[in-house]
Design goal:
Elements: E1 2-6, E2 9-14, E3 23-25, H1 36-42, H2 49-60, H3 64-75, H4 77-105, H5 110-150, E4 152-154, E5 157-159, H6 162-167, H7 175-190, H8 200-226, H9 242-247, H10 251-259, H11 262-270, H12 278-304, H13 325-359, H14 370-388, H15 394-420, H16 428-460
Antiparallel strand pairs: 1-2, 2-3, 4-5
């Protein structure tokens, strides 16, 4: 017997030589992620601890890191760093609740856990939120990759990209053409894998590239601190009126988005050789990612101060005032651009499962239907490519997806599952935490959406 995860829910299938090779069986509580039949067939004996940590860390450390220095600029250094750590702690708590209630409901997907608590409507709502969140993230990834290569514009200032700086501005260094080549030569091969563990090596490389980015940024900042060219950062937020106070709440969706990985927890757990390691994997990944986030936010804000842009990578186009500054600028941008290219397929994996589960809830798992697998993959890639060419900047994308889908996935749904408590296992701590998460998520999301709508109409006016 084997558990095959797909977003329409979870089913168990047994090989049969007499009928269709995949026959649905009643979910009887066996949580073993893989059975010997399918293991022998595909030659896979379960994912390792390190491979799972790499895949989960890759899911977490994506484009959100680029917006964190700007978030710290908005909140001030001390509150900003405290909030990064606090959201990490809250994320660990919500993932623990999802896993615990998943065990009680015998569910092996996030949508299965919510479906157990709220029925089919809850399952569908979660699938829609995963789709919105992951589409937004992948569009952001493409935007940043385009900016790394071809540059970006803030106001009247054009920030040069790497290739644009080397070869000049031409049609073949434009963001659209660069993203088309990236889609065909990089994304298309990587999204063709049907098992998330197949991406463990690219995930390990992506984590290493993120570390390179953080190490170089830290080194540059330390050198500038030593030579006295870095000023004292603003420690607290600037609150001059009511509008500036409410604007602080718009940073919460960005912080939540930076840690969203709940939709990848069960696919990773289902492939583990030892599923009991999942809690340790989550803690290890969150500890690593929090360290990366704190270092990037601290040294990024120290380095650029009040000039920190929404996408801090765009800041690495000017003279850093240190030896080999130009080379370091290019290494920083290229390393993180490559990191995002390798993160892309891991996030895309969960997106494809959710779309398939929404459109074909009763079909066999998508990995067993090549035509469906290919058509959904091509359709999603086309949508993401078009979106990346029309969304104006990453802050706008983070605000809208973060204030809606991300806060729902990270805070609202886990809290709702605990408060519903279909199996009577919620503790007093669960209920207190859940009400607090609900209040924080709804308040910050409402303020963020209102602020964005006001900004859009104000800019048009």
């Amino acid at each position: 017997m084997t558990v095959l995860t797909f977003s329409g829910g979870e089913r168990k299938y047994r090989r049969s030589p007499r009928n269709h090779p995949l026959l649905p069986q009643k979910h009887d509580g066996d949580d073993s992620p893989f059975g010997s039949d399918i293991d022998d067939q595909i030659g896979f004996n379960g994912a390792s601890f390190s491979g799972a940590v790499f895949n989960l860390s890759t899911t977490i450390v994506g484009a959100g890191i680029m917006a964190l220095p700007a978030t710290v600029k908005e909140l001030g250094l001390l509150p900003g760093l405290i909030m990064i750590i606090l959201v990490a702690v809250l994320t660990e708590s919500t993932i623990e609740m999802v896993l615990r209630f998943g065990k009680a409901s015998k569910a092996v997907t996030y949508s299965g856990v919510l479906g157990d608590a709220f029925g089919g409507s809850g399952r569908t709502l979660l699938q829609v939120c995963i789709i919105v969140n992951n589409l937004g993230l992948l569009i952001v990834y493409m935007i940043i990759i385009g900016e790394v290569v071809s540059g970006t514009r803030t106001g009247v200032v054009h920030h040069y990209g790497v290739v644009e700086g080397w070869l000049g501005r031409h049609w073949w260094t434009s963001p659209s053409f660069v993203l088309l080549l990236t889609t065909l030569l990089v994304f298309a091969p990587l999204i063709s894998f049907k098992r998330v563990d197949s991406l463990r090596y690219t995930s390990a490389l992506s984590v290493a590239l993120a570390v390179v980015f953080v190490a170089i940024t830290t080194g540059i900042t330390v050198v500038k601190l030593v030579n006295g060219s870095v000023g004292m950062p603003r420690l607290l937020p600037q609150i001059v009126d009511q509008a500036s106070f409410w604007k602080l709440f718009t940073t919460v969706p960005v912080l939540v988005t930076a840690y969203i990985c709940h939709y990848s927890i069960h696919p990773i757990e289902n492939e583990l050789k030892d599923p009991s390691q999942m809690k340790s994997i989550v803690r290890t990944s969150l500890a690593f990612c929090s360290s990366v986030y704190v270092a990037t936010s601290l040294f990024g804000f120290l380095l650029f101060g009040e000039q920190t842009l929404d996408d801090v990578l765009a800041n690495f186009d000017a003279d850093l005032g240190i030896p080999f500054g130009g080379i370091l600028n290019d290494v920083v941008r290229v390393s993180y651009g490559l990191h995002l290219m390798l993160v892309f397929p891991v996030v895309f994996f969960s997106l494809r499962l959710s779309v398939d589960g929404l459109l074909f809830p009763m079909a066999v798992p998508i990995g067993f239907d090549n035509k469906r697998f290919m058509s959904i993959s091509v359709g999603l890639m086309g949508f993401i490519f078009i979106g990346a060419n029309f969304v104006p900047n990453i802050w706008t994308a983070f605000q809208f997806t973060g204030a809606t889908a991300a806060t729902s996935l990270g805070f609202i749904f886990p809290a709702a599952i605990a408060l519903r408590d279909s199996h009577g296992i919620a503790t007093k701590k669960d209920r207190i935490l859940s009400w607090g998460l609900m209040f924080l998520a709804v308040t910050s999301s409402t303020v963020a959406i209102s602020s964005n709508i006001y900004s859009i109409f104000n800019d048009q006016g």
